[in-house]
Write a structure and sequence with these properties.
The complex is a heterodimer. Chain A is mainly alpha-helical. Chain A is built from 10 helices and no strands. In chain A, helix 4 crosses helix 8 and helix 7 packs parallel to helix 10. Chain B folds into 2 domains: 217 residues, Rossmann fold; 76 residues, 2-Layer Sandwich (Alpha-Beta Plaits), CATH 3.30.70. Helix content of chain B is 34%, strand content 29%. Classes of the chains: A mainly alpha, B alpha/beta. Chains A and B meet through helix 1 and helix 5 of A and helix 2 of B.
């Protein structure tokens, strides 16, 4: 298993993928957090879907992680793309047969891939947390937002909790990407399907019927990143429900894809 | 301990209603070079994939180095393979690609540079795979197959894209490996290459075995041809008549007569032609090569 993880990490650390992804994470984490403060007085709102998060909320112990939590869904999309591409490319390049000749246990290949991509995701999340919180700390005083409570005991606990929530959410999105990669066996198809579903189809379904957000996979995983309804950014979905429904989607998808991967002939 | 590297019994693979490989049986002894030949679509790659545990057979059994093919984990650490061309990550260098496989298989990483040197890519190891020529990709594929210091090496068309010098190097490499005790199971459409290096031959046609055994045995089964050329082109038909009267099959091809007959009969033909007033410009007994034998046996030409 360690051999698989080590081999997979060699692929993930290539500069174009690693630096490209981390660059995007730094840029968007900084942007999402900066907009919270730069648009704080904007009538169009300063958060996701036109919501307004005022000075009072940002001054709370949870204020420091508002930006980080809101970028969680975006990190999930990045993870979906990376996990899907890294999985599906083995089919398009024909490299899966090399992997299976060197490691015939297909479950070890799959588990090793997942672990290595989770390590990649953790680096991405940690970087995002540093940039988001750092940006918030720099910009908060410029718009009269107090940061006194951000690093109190409660604030530190919220940073930790948000990090865990974002990690669960990002890994959930990643696993969905991996499942799509295994099912569609083409990076372009897997990423297109995943991104279109999460960014367009789900939003359309919620716009047509608001209650559909309670069972849509992307909505559940985004809600987990935001800590559920209590943070107010995806009002309506309770954290526990998001965890349960999102978990069911991820688990069922992972089981189906694993069974297919183990049993399917490698004929390309 | 078994003395066969590959043993296959009643092995079949069916895709929906198409039988890609049909109840094949053959054995490859340890330490030999075995050529695996057949036209495109005859089932060579499918057979190799079954032997490597990549696809599940519909029926039959197979053993690699004494282990059943249902348990590839028991033998793949001793097997090197390149199937259906070299497949690597385009954005990684040749060195990095081999490192991925070395890490995966738990092989010593020093072998990576040694193998790059061995296949003539020592100075291009740091270049990205996507910048390689077809021949260089092929060499990298062979290097990857050699990573585990294999007891059995399975190569699918390893000389594709190589220049004549590269082909000669691969031929020498395979022969050296066989001399060191590695069994080499190699498919190629260059039958002349296989004829030079192979001890054994497995011939497939439309998923069925046409011949499996020592190459010497195969060639011994083939009837030699006597090629006769007369000084006057008009005498060719008369030579055909002489051969046919003696009970031999004879045809005119280009400017000569091809007679299917034992080599000794060349002297008889020479004498008969002289008696008939025909001056022969050439009289050469010729054994069929592997390519001719292959076409003869598969009926593809």
């Amino acid at each position: 298993m360690l051999n698989v993880v080590s081999a997979e990490l060699r692929k993930l650390r290539r500069p174009t993928l690693f630096l490209g992804t981390m660059g995007a994470v730094v840029f968007f984490s900084g942007l999402f957090s900066a907009l919270l403060y730069l648009l704080i007085d904007s009538p169009q709102g300063n958060a996701d879907r036109g919501q307004a998060i005022g000075r009072e909320v940002l001054s709370l112990a949870s204020g420091g992680v508002q930006g980080f939590a809101s970028v969680g869904g975006f990190l999930g999309i990045i993870a979906l793309c990376v996990f899907a591409a890294q999985t599906a490319q083995e089919y398009t390049y024909g490299t899966l047969r090399n992997l299976l000749i060197r490691q015939p246990s297909r479950m070890k290949i799959l588990a090793g891939k997942l672990i290595s991509m989770m390590i990649f995701a953790l680096v991405m999340i940690a970087l995002s947390a540093i940039v988001s919180i750092g940006t918030s700390v720099i910009l908060a005083p410029t718009v009269d937002v107090s940061t006194d409570l951000w690093f109190s005991a409660a604030g530190i606990e919220l940073i930790y909790t948000t990090f865990v929530n974002v990690t669960i959410s990002v890994v959930g999105f990643g696993v969905i990407g991996m499942v799509l990669g295994l099912l569609l066996r083409s990076p372009i198809s897997a990423i297109s399907f995943g991104v279109l579903w999460l960014l367009i189809v789900e939003n359309l379904l919620v716009a047509v019927k608001n209650s559909s957000q309670y069972w849509l996979p992307g909505a559940q995983l985004s809600s987990i990143a935001n800590g559920g309804a209590q943070l107010g950014t995806t009002a309506g979905i309770e954290y526990s429900q998001a965890l349960l429904v999102g978990g069911i989607y991820v688990a069922v998808g992972a089981i189906v894809a694993s069974v297919l991967f183990v049993r399917r002939d490698v004929a390309n | 301990m078994t003395n066969t590297a590959i043993s296959v019994s009643d092995l079949s693979k069916k895709y929906e209603d198409r039988l890609a490989v049909s109840h094949i049986n053959f054995e490859v002894p340890l330490g030999t070079v075995c050529g695996f030949v057949g036209p495109n679509g005859s089932g060579k790659t499918t057979t190799m994939r079954m032997l490597l545990g990549l696809i599940t057979p519909t029926t039959g059994q197979g053993h690699i180095l004494g282990e059943p093919i249902e348990h590839p984990e028991k033998y793949l650490s001793r097997v090197g393979a390149m199937i259906e061309g070299p497949a690597f990550y385009p954005a990684l260098s040749g060195y990095e690609n081999l490192m991925v496989l070395a890490k995966l298989g738990g092989f010593p990483i020093e072998r990576v540079q040694q193998l790059l040197d061995k296949v003539g890519l020592g100075d291009r190891g740091k270049s990205k795979f996507k910048t390689y020529s077809l021949g260089m990709k092929q060499r990298l594929g062979i290097a990857a197959a050699l990573l585990p210091e294999p007891k059995l090496l399975m190569l699918d068309e390893p000389t594709n894209g190589l220049d004549p010098e590269g082909i000669q190097e691969v031929r020498a490499l395979l022969r050296d490996l066989a001399n060191e005790g590695t069994t080499v199971f190699v498919s190629s459409h260059l039958l002349s290459e296989l004829e030079i290096i192979s001890d054994y031959i497995v011939m497939l046609r439309k998923g069925e075995i046409v011949f499996a055994g020592p190459i010497g045995e195969l060639m011994a089964q083939q009837q030699p041809t006597i090629i006769a050329k007369s000084l006057k082109k008009s005498d060719l038909k008369r030579i055909v008549k002489i051969a046919k009267e003696a009970g031999h099959h004879a045809v005119i091809r280009d400017d000569s007569v091809h007679v299917l007959a034992d080599m000794k009969w060349a002297a008889v033909l020479n004498e008969a032609a002289f008696d008939a007033g025909i001056t022969l410009a050439q009289l050469a007994p010729q054994l069929p090569n592997l390519e001719e034998t292959f076409f003869e046996m598969t009926g593809d030409k």
